[in-house]
Amino acid sequence: MAGLLPVLLLGFLVPAALLAGDNTLVATRAVRASSVLGPDDVTLLPGSTPGALSSPEEAIGQETRAALYPGRPIYAGQVGPPALVERNATVMLHFRQGALFISTEGRALDRAGEGETVRVMNLTSRQIVQGRVAPDGSVEVGR
């Protein structure tokens, strides 16, 4: 309860929670899914919300996975790395094991950002495989 009491600081009443670092990151405006967040899209409000982000650095530059609404907390599952692979896009599949390196084309079945797992249909064999998106937008399988 002490975190809710205001504190007199330099003649201004400031919520103690803001001073203590218990903040919740919220959207400043409605943001559509698949949008990259900028500094004007988020702000901090005093108080802690379980599971919500607490720092602008955690969200700025990330892509929204769901629509965000003004004044509502932003949760970690609602943002992620910007998509490098779009659904139905043709991507390069790379398999490497020791000295063996195989490369072929595939069709992405999902959207995904760098480091995320994506399902891809191998266009040669028609098999569906899972792989991790590399920084260049290709998909590494078999690791």
UniProtKB/TrEMBL annotation:
Domain of life: Bacteria
Domain SAF: 22-80
CDD domains, alphabetized: SAF_CpaB_FlgA_like
GO biological process: bacterial-type flagellum assembly
GO cellular component, one term: periplasmic space
UniProt keyword list: Bacterial flagellum biogenesis, Cell projection, Cilium, Flagellum, Periplasm, Plasmid, Signal
Main location: periplasm
Subcellular location per the Swiss-Prot or TrEMBL entry: Periplasm
InterPro entries with a match to the protein in the record: Flagellar_FlgA (IPR039246), SAF (IPR013974), SAF_FlgA (IPR017585)
Keyword Signal among UniProt keywords: yes
PANTHER family linked: FLAGELLA BASAL BODY P-RING FORMATION PROTEIN FLGA
Family (UniProt): Belongs to the FlgA family.
Function summary: Involved in the assembly process of the P-ring formation. It may associate with FlgF on the rod constituting a structure essential for the P-ring assembly or may act as a modulator protein for the P-ring assembly.
NCBIfam families registered for this protein in UniProt: flgA_cterm (TIGR03170)
Name of protein: Flagella basal body P-ring formation protein FlgA
Species this chain originates from: Paroceanicella profunda
